[in-house]
Specification:
The complex is a heterodimer of chains A (242) and B (198). Chain A is built from five helices and 13 strands. By secondary structure, chain A is an alpha+beta fold. In chain A, helix 4 runs antiparallel to helix 5. Helix content of chain B is 26%, strand content 28%. Classes of the chains: A alpha+beta (242), B alpha+beta (198).
């Protein structure tokens, strides 16, 4: 498929490329789940520059309008661009001043169109987006990938979260989780990611969205546990080995 | 200086299988509800079956017939001949005489009316089984013989359930849940069946 496209001259040369080729400053996983009153979403505050953990206070979750919460992983500059698009969208929505406002389904649909259209031009916004919200009592949680694949589910995760957090959520999520249980479940997922994802940082925020509105917690750290008996005297039983 | 190959593809394979069978006065369309990407499952609950008719109805002041829909889909796909929709479709419905009507497509819009078809990651497993159970008379025969199956509606639904239960065993991209839609003179009926989740 790719070589055929090169023959047709569709790819062009790299030196004059104005399109996104690789991400530079990236955020790692976002994990979100539906609970009794709405949506809970968690993301750490790291912005990696390749293998360097360059930025440690990047807010990767933002409120959108009255009813939605957007979390993003991937290229941070593209996330900021998406926030500008959404600012304009919400502004125009407010200017109608007709008592109606865009709900999470509508914002999710808008984002899907934007991502898919950029993918069609071979200039993707290098993000995986998580969109959650509550409107008129209806909870909504969806995801859009950088090529425009979108779906909704009771719990979603991006990047490494797909591999490490989703299995935990599939096992332990159930309808009508209380707020405390939801937070505990998310923290469990984020802790596993902290142990196993090299681009995770121990500074995270948890956001909650309900019919009343959005609350994003101030940054905090998770407690980690390294006191495993196997870590004490690790060479016992095999002296001299590593 | 060798031209660099792009390290990003605009396509992803989300897997899944679908089947449609045409009967004398009904049509059965079924698809699993798993959406995958690589070795991950993104969600177990994604519907791959959609109803299409409203815009046509508003413009042409009549219900959209299945053959008209078939042509529309073919044109839509061929429109993107040089950057295809990477989607393999099966269209099912009732023709103007109320007989079951199934059309099968490739990614760029080439289509054919058949008595039954399957597409997707499990089609290589399902199609031979359908050929064995439903073998249509050859379209080359004269006088032209009906491609629709003599099976009853409930027999066809059972056949579809068997197809997916088997495909789920061997195809990693097929599973979770089966959505079955049955179209007949009374309208549209939806049915679900659980499939293996591994």
């Amino acid at each position: 498929m790719d070589s055929k496209m090169q023959q047709h001259g569709l790819l062009g040369s790299e030196s004059d490329s104005q399109r996104t080729l690789y991400p530079y400053v990236t955020g790692t996983s976002v994990v979100a789940l539906k609970y009794k009153d709405g949506i809970l979403m968690a993301a750490d505050m790291g912005g990696s520059y390749g293998s360097t953990l360059r930025y440690k206070t990047v807010e990767r979750m933002k409120a959108i309008g009255k009813h939605s919460l957007l979390g993003a992983s991937g290229e941070i500059s593209d996330f900021q661009e998406i926030l500008r698009y959404l600012d304009e969208l919400i502004l125009y929505d407010n200017m109608w001043d007709d008592g109606n406002s865009l709900g999470p389904k509508e914002v999710h649909n808008y984002l899907t169109r934007v991502m898919y259209n950029r993918r069609n031009k071979f200039n993707p916004l290098w993000n995986s987006l998580v969109l959650g919200g509550v409107k008129n009592g209806q909870k909504y949680l969806g995801m859009v990938s950088m090529i425009g694949v979108n779906f909704e589910d009771n719990h979603v995760a991006t990047g490494f979260g797909n591999h490490l957090a989703r299995p935990i959520l599939r096992d332990e999520w159930h309808e009508n989780l209380s707020f405390e249980d939801g937070v505990k479940l998310l923290e469990k997922c984020m802790r596993v990611l902290l142990y196993r994802d090299r681009s995770a940082v121990n500074k995270l925020q948890i956001a909650k969205i309900t019919e009343e509105g959005v609350t994003i917690s101030p940054p905090y750290s998770l407690k980690t546990f390294w006191g495993f008996s196997a870590f004490h005297n690790p060479t016992v039983g095999a002296e001299g080995s590593w | 200086m060798v031209k660099q190959q792009p390290n990003w593809s605009p396509y992803d394979n989300n897997g899944g299988s679908c089947v449609a069978i045409a009967g004398a006065d009904y049509c059965v369309i079924a698809a699993d509800t798993r959406m995958s990407s690589g070795y991950n499952i993104l969600t177990r609950d994604y519907s791959k079956i959609c109803k299409l008719h409203l815009i046509y109805q508003h413009q042409h002041n009549k219900q959209m017939s299945c053959p008209a829909m078939a042509q529309l889909l073919s044109n839509t796909l061929y429109y993107k001949r040089f950057f295809p929709y990477y989607a393999f479709n099966v269209l099912g419905g009732l023709d103007n005489e109320g007989k079951g009507c199934v059309f099968t497509y490739d990614a760029v819009g080439s289509y054919e009316r058949v008595g039954y078809s399957s597409q997707g990651s499990g089609s290589t497993l399902i199609m031979p089984f359908l050929d064995n159970q439903l073998k249509s008379p050859s379209p080359l025969l004269l006088p032209a013989q009906d491609a629709v199956t003599p099976l009853s509606e409930s027999e066809a639904v059972d056949l579809v359930k068997t197809c997916f239960a088997s495909a789920t065993e061997r195809d990693i991209y097929t599973g979770d849940r089966l959505e079955i839609v049955v179209l007949n003179a009374d309208g549209i009926r939806r049915e679900y069946m659980e499939l293996r989740k591994d």
